[in-house]
Structures are given as C-alpha cells and as structure tokens.
Amino acid sequence: MSRVYNFSAGPAVLPEEVLREAAEEMMDYRGSGMSVMEMSHRSKVYDTIIKEAEADLRDLMNIPDNYKVLFLQGGASQQFAMIPMNLMKNRKAAYIVTGQWAKKAWKEAQIYGDAVAVASSEDKTFSYIPDCSDLDIPEDADYVYICENNTIYGTKYKTLPNTKGHILVADVSSCFLSEPVDVSRYGIIYGGVQKNIGPAGVVIVIIREDLITEDTLPGTPTMLKYKTHADADSLYNTPPAYGIYICGKVFKWLKNLGGLSAIKERNEEKAKILYDFLDESKLFKGTVVKEDRSLMNVPFVTGDADLDAKFVAEAKAAGFENLKGHRSVGGMRASIYNAMPKEGVEKLAAFMREFEKNNA
Ligand SMILES: *Cc1c(COP(=O)(O)O)cnc(C)c1O
User: Which one, 75, 140, 267, 273, has least CB within 10 Å?
Assistant: First the structure.
C-alpha cells in the first residue's frame, strides 16, 4: 500500500487512523455481524453511533444547549436554498460576496426574495476579505450571510462582520473544526463535511432553536424545512448513515489530539511553512493579501502558465496530488486540511524549493 500526499480541496484527505479503524470494522461492526453500511438507521447500534457523533461534536465546538445539530444531505449547495426558504420572513437578506460559493448562495437567494450584496471582493478576483465593520445592512434584512473560508480563493475572515444585530449565517465548509469558534455568535453555522471532516454526502447544520419554525416560505418541501429534521433528531428519513459514522470517528480523532485549540496550533504551524516559503520565494507567489490568508487553502502561482503546468506534473510524479488550482484562479492550490500531516507540508515546501532552483 502506498498513499500519496493529497492536497485536494474536497473530497479531501482523511486521517489515516480513521480509515484504518473503519477498515477493521468493515465486515463486522463491534460484534453486530454487519457493516455500518448494512444496518438499519433505526437500530440500537446505529442510534448509539449518531448520538455519540452529535455529543462529540457538541463537546468539540462547545455548542450551547439552545442550538440543534442536524446531519443532512444535499451538499452545502442545498443550503443555499434551504436558508432563505426557512429564514427569509421579510424576503430580504444581506450577502457578502467573497468568492464563487458566496456568489452562488447569493444568486440562489434571489429566487426567494431581495438578496442584497452589501460587500464584495470580486473587483480583485476575491483575493481579500472586504472591510465588514460598518456595512449598509437593510434594517429589515432577515440575516447576513457569509462564506467564512473561501475554498477556491484561499481567503478567510479573521474577524466576523458587524451584522448590526442581524442574524449571522455562515458557510464554514472548508474551515469546519479547523479552530475554536464561538457558536453563539451565529444563527446558523453549516458546512459540507467533505472538505475538512469526512466523506461526501453529509452536511452539518448547527442552528439556533428559535430559527427553527413552521413559518417557512410557501411551497417549502417537507425535506427542506429545518423543523422536519430537528423534530426527528436527523432521522426523519434515512440519513447518510455511513458518512455520519466516519464523521463521528473524526470527531474522536480531534478530541484525542486535544480538541480545536490544539488543531488550530497545528494548522497554524503547517500554513506558516508554506506561507513563509511563498514570501521568500522568487518564483512562487501567494495570490491572497497577507491579512486574509486561509489556514486551509493556499493558492499560489509562478506567473507563467506553462511553468505552473510543469510544476503540477512534476509534483504529481513525486507523490503530491491535486495541486492544480481552480480554473478561475489558475496556478496551484494546496489544501492543507486538518488531516494533512505536517510532514506532507514540509515535503511540499522542500519540493517547491528544489523546483525553484532547477527552474531559475
Ligand atoms: C465545496 C464547497 C461548497 C459546495 O459544497 P457541495 O457539498 O458540493 O454542495 C460550498 N461552500 C464551500 C465553502 C465549499 O468549499
């Protein structure tokens, strides 16, 4: 068996310990005589799996009691519609457009009401986070929406926007569990798990209880009401059962490492290796303003498309996979999520140094 260093933006690298444990439990989950993939989601065994996953997540993120944790499907993209359908009581919301995912959410919300872009960084290819300290937020806006870590562009909010008393909704798909957060500052904090937590197919929505109501937009399908899933503890219908089981293992892995403060420290160390190199390199250059750099997604370029392609090809041959940047930015992107070992980042930086020497 040989594993590569996988810098994919998502689905992405998972902790080896978790994969090994899942492999060991594949044929016979703890004496049940079956795989978790084969068992009823209504069984006692599975009930323990999903309840423990929720309890561990609550513990890790210090989630207050007046928040529900929902394990849903449909990807982060389905939340782009579900959020306005459930929250847009006044048919108005404020969106901060910091990349493609925020823009998609903003466009989707326009189907349901007046979605106002109150700030954007599109003028400079989303390479920074706009100043959000004093935005012109409509009084009657139902919520303010952000994408907290911009997976494609590699920017991250270092301070949350001043919402002027409005509910904050955040897509944290690509920074989920990368550092401690104060959940109480959000109305909804959600993300697809396939970036920084588990396998594709699960979306985790953490939502303040008072936002879960029957009062949704007319025509909202049963499956797209938060209340449906909250009332049934995420078991209204068959949940993405195996994916939740893997997420639960990742939560335990994080707890064993010391929780979110410990993982933040590791993530900072890892990101520093790459950013320090980019800052001193004469060939490679980071594409994001320093203050807004993400700890998770690190885009960089040489400035020459042919050289970029050569780098990606040689890196792949050397065991560094998925370094090609998103087509809208070009160049390269190294996604260095929680499960990417520090060694992988050190070796990538060394490889880049060597490439620079050979291509000076
Ligand atoms: C990947 C990603 C999405 C889309 O996720 P899907 O699960 O494919 O719908 C949305 N937001 C962010 C920040 C992402 O990184």
Answer: 140
